[in-house]
Specification:
The complex is a heterodimer of chains A (388) and B (298). Chain A has eleven helices and 15 strands. By secondary structure, chain A is an alpha/beta fold. Chain A folds into two domains: 200 residues, Rossmann fold (3-Layer(aba) Sandwich), CATH 3.40.50; 126 residues, 3-Layer(aba) Sandwich (Rossmann fold), CATH 3.40.50. With 298 residues, chain B is mainly α. Chain B has a single domain, classed as ABC transporter involved in vitamin B12 uptake, BtuC (Orthogonal Bundle). Helices cover 74% and strands 3% of the residues of chain B. Chain B is built from eleven helices and two strands; from the N terminus they run ααααββααααααα. Chain B has a two-stranded antiparallel ribbon. In chain B, helix 2 crosses helix 8. The two termini of chain B are 35 Å apart. In chain B, 54% of the residues are buried. Classes of the chains: A alpha/beta (388), B mainly alpha (298). At the A-B interface, helix 2, strand 7, helix 7 and helix 8 of A face helix 1, helix 3, helix 4, helix 8 and helix 9 of B.
């Protein structure tokens, strides 16, 4: 080990300068002063997305959906002579980072901000945006503590609103008992389990066992063994990412043959690794590629041509979120926050058609018709019978 | 009975993963927190070859790829990060802290690269998911061929390695290095060569663990190493830093505790009880179950 010495002051000073320079590079620039009348030639939006960390999958898809929407809006000259741009900031699925980015963005006074998908990030961002009366449109972010102001909107149907369709399907399978494996550290998953327990009797079944794991836990074999030991007629998977495929495989290995339901996180090829073990798993979603509707088909085709990948529901939601923003700006014909907010509320109440289908936004919350989805032979598809 | 099988397999996974961490910590005083990322990136390397490059490989070859990838990654870490830090540090303590931070940085780089290239979606090591053969033992108990392989290979590797450390010339050299590096150098033991060997072995075991776990769980994500790293750390501390036998026993003790808690409660308390158990053991034996005082490690 050497004993080199340098001037501590130089090192500290250099470090401060470097940090400031890096911060300046990453900071949102000051948006144009809100225009009370008419849109400026360039309308700048800002999108705070979880581009890394556990929610990077939806975050990166949101980024793509946002960019595609902006390109389409400009190509169609939807805002007349005004051109829409969008910048991105990474909340990294970390509440502290999300709050820091949000503070800077709120001070920059963008006409509309698109918010991050992870509930943990969204709950950190929402109050800051609310305090600044900053019109903000979130996608996903289904937990409490997000719609905390009339300036905040959520362009994703809540899972709790989608889940009844799944429960209806399960009831139609004439099962009497259900066991659940859930991520106890994700509020949405726990809420879905509670919904299953509370409403199951209405559909003819009862939840007799609930096993909990953590979202970061890869090995869920022990919990699944406990679930299978309950010998129920059906299983419910309220877990995330790789846990869905692992649970499906363990269920097959344990000779479980009954119906299995999941929730939206089973979508988007999360079940692919389970192979045939995942065949027949059912869940409800607001959208998948192949959903009915002209706009859905157009969006899917454009996304595939641009990104050479199949779009996810996250991309579709964020696409519609930016179109919602554009509709609000067009109606307001202004970037003044109050006018934009009033216009967004009006557009949402009247409803519009997007990639997700016919959409309304009431009290800040988007609703669209849920779809029953099943996984078979390596892909997800809309079930033929949408009324089980 | 099924839970017993789960505990054995889980213990084997922890053992395989913790072995590499314990080796570098015990012999080189390097707490390599990039070990989890190396585990994941070894599996990710196999994904790149079998799916991105569309080169279909049998699982045995995939395993070799992961072993080589893991060994090279940790060797690279040693040459490019740890040795440079040691050279520039004034004291041993400063070096250890700096290497710890350096390993966190290296881990972040590997995880971020994998996240970006997979869009943080789950990935497998083979193009077609490996379908395990299931053997039903009656009364709802079953075991798969993948579980058998993990449960056999991990302890065999660990025992073999423990014996090698104890009885082979190179193993004795490593133990000497752990006791007193300067004196070992005077006795002709090359710290650089031993360091490289230890890191390469550590990385190779991470590679094995990466493939085994990915096949066992069907898939992993870029973040999959972080949860295991915490548990491996607990295993090494519980078993005693520098003791391979301690790692072996510690892994199964932790796995057994976790499985028992999961089986008897709803699972929420698993981590709390497991780590509480470790605290309790350390209060009675601060050096771990098989730990020795510094100076006679490994």
């Amino acid at each position: 080990m050497s004993s080199r010495r340098g001037s501590p002051a130089c090192g500290i000073g250099g470090g401060i300068i470097l940090a400031l320079a890096l911060a300046a590079c990453g900071s949102p620039v000051l948006a144009a002063t809100p225009a009370a009348h008419g849109l400026p030639s360039t309308v700048a939006l800002y999108s705070i997305q979880d581009l890394s960390g556990p929610a990077a999958t939806p975050g990166l898809d949101d980024e793509r959906g946002d960019q595609l929407a902006v390109a389409d809006i400009n190509r169609e000259k939807f805002l007349g002579s005004a051109r829409l741009t969008i910048s991105f900031g990474n909340s990294a699925t970390d509440p502290t980072t999300a709050a820091a980015v949000a503070s800077t963005v709120a001070a920059a006074r963008y006409p509309i901000v698109i918010g991050p998908p992870a509930s943990s990030s969204a709950v950190a961002v929402a109050p800051i945006m609310a305090k600044a009366d900053q019109p903000t449109v979130f996608t996903q972010a289904g937990s409490d503590g997000v719609l905390v102001s009339p300036y905040i909107y959520r362009m994703t149907t809540l899972q709790a609103s989608l889940y009844p369709l799944t429960m209806k399907w399960l009831g139609a399978q004439r099962v009497k008992t259900v066991a659940v494996i859930q991520d106890s550290d994700i509020p949405t998953e726990v809420r879905l389990t509670d919904e299953l327990k509370a409403d199951g009797p209405r559909y003819g079944f009862k939840v007799v066992d609930v096993e909990s794991v953590l979202a970061t836990q890869s090995n869920i074999a022990s919990a699944m063994s406990s679930v299978l030991a309950a010998h129920t007629e059906a299983l419910a998977l309220n877990v995330v990412t790789t846990q869905n495929a692992t649970a499906a495989t363990l269920a097959q290995q344990g000779s479980f043959k009954g119906p299995i339901i999941a929730e939206e996180s089973a979508a988007n090829a999360e079940l692919a690794a389970a192979g045939s073990a995942a065949n027949g798993i059912v869940w409800a979603s607001d959208w998948i590629a192949g959903s009915p509707g002209q706009m859905s088909a157009t969006f899917t085709k454009e996304y595939e041509a641009t990104y050479h990948a199949v779009p996810t529901n996250w991309a579709a939601e964020s696409y519609d979120a930016v179109w919602f923003a554009a509709r609000g700006l067009k109606q307001a014909d202004s970037t003044s926050p109050a006018k934009v907010q009033a216009a967004l509320t009006s557009v949402g109440s009247a409803g519009f058609t997007g990639a997700l289908g016919n959409i309304t936004v009431v009290n800040g919350q988007e609703t669209s018709k849920p779809l029953l989805i099943s996984w078979n032979d390596g892909s997800q598809s809309v079930m033929a019978n949408q009324n089980p | 009975m099924e839970q017993l099988i789960n505990a054995i397999v889980l213990g084997a996974i922890y053992c395989l993963f913790a072995m590499g961490l314990g080796l570098t910590w015990g012999t080189l005083n390097v707490l390599n927190l990039a070990h989890g990322a190396v585990f994941m990136f070894s599996a990710f390397t196999c994904y790149l070859i079998t799916q991105r490059a569309d080169v279909h490989l049998p699982i045995a070859v995939v395993l070799i790829v992961a072993v080589v990838a893991g060994a090279l990654m940790e060797l690279g870490l040693d040459l490019l990060v740890f040795r440079q830090i040691k050279r520039r540090s004034r004291t041993q303590g400063e070096a250890e802290m700096s290497m710890l931070i350096g390993s966190i940085g290296a881990s972040a780089i590997l995880v971020t690269v994998a996240e970006q290239l997979t869009a943080d979606t789950p990935f497998t090591v083979t193009a077609v998911p490996v379908k395990a053969s299931v053997y039903h033992l009656g009364s709802g108990v079953y075991v798969t061929n993948v579980e058998i392989v993990i449960a056999v290979v991990a302890p065999v590797l660990t025992v073999g390695f423990a014996l090698w450390i104890q009885r082979s010339r190179m193993g004795r050299a490593m133990r000497a290095l752990a006791c007193d590096a300067p004196t070992s150098g005077l006795m002709g033991i090359s710290e650089g060569r031993m360091s490289a060997l230890a890191m390469a072995i550590s990385g190779a075991t991470a590679g094995v663990a990466g493939v085994f776990l990915t096949v066992y769980l069907d898939s992993v994500t870029a973040d999959s190493g972080s949860d295991l790293l915490l548990r491996a750390f607990a295993v090494v501390v519980l078993g005693g830093v520098g003791s391979m036998w301690g790692t072996l026993i510690g892994a199964f003790v932790l796995a057994g505790g976790e499985t028992l808690v999961t089986a008897t409660t709803s699972g929420i308390w698993t981590s709390a009880v497991s780590f509480g158990l470790i605290i309790a053991v350390l209060l009675v034996r601060p050096s771990g179950l098989f730990g020795k005082v510094k100076g006679v490690r490994a």
